[in-house]
Amino acid sequence: MSGTPYDPAREGAEMAFDGRMSYGDYLQLDRVLTAQAPLSDAHDEMLFIVQHQTSELWMRLALHELGAARAAIAADDLRPAFKMLSRVARIFEQLNSAWDVLRTMTPSEYTEFRESLGQSSGFQSWQYRLIEFTVGNRNPAMLRPHAHRADIHAALTAELARPSLYDAALACLSRGGIAVPGAVLARDVAQPYRADPGVEAAWAAVYRAPEAHWTLYELAEKLVDFEDYFRRWRFNHVTAVERVIGFKRGTGGTGGVSYLKRMLEVELFPELWHLRTQL
Q: Model pTM?
């Protein structure tokens, strides 16, 4: 081992940043790393805050990718959409891993700061709601928790007026020569989507002849892959909450675990799952 300390500057590393863009400047780390403001003296409140803030950052990226994927599908530019949907699936893999960190917090540790949360709850995450609206799980009743923020309420309402990711996929399926029921293509996109036998038959036709419909076949599998990870995230959410608070009501007034378990029954792309039984 050499006795001379390593100096990165000798290899050209930038070492002076007066008036120049640094790593911290670019990422605005002063803002990010001072955004954690625990309201109690409990050690584990910092874990709780960071876990939820990082989850919201991943959701921010997921929305960026989902919006671009939807636009690409609407333009029949499917290859970039496949890359974006694969990335969203990996984002939800990261979100799944975050629950593993939160599960290191015990019920007694959470109790130390739970009252500090007031009525705040993950149920109120507008980005999560926007993800659901974007991909196709639409329920206008879920606008109400955001009525106090006109900007957020407007963004969610605007999303309900646009065709969802799944609507875009079904329109693409139709343009690809696969018969999709006209009533589905012309439906009120703001309303919850309901599984349709004709849509299941359309996707089944793709799965029965993948060589003839390869891009549509790959589109279907990218959607299934995303929903697979999304379902795992929901399941991990349930188990993490049950492990930490049992069956207490949620801070936001929901039934807690009972509410989350009902969400496990929601299918984003129902026909893509149902058709597997008939193949």
A: 0.90
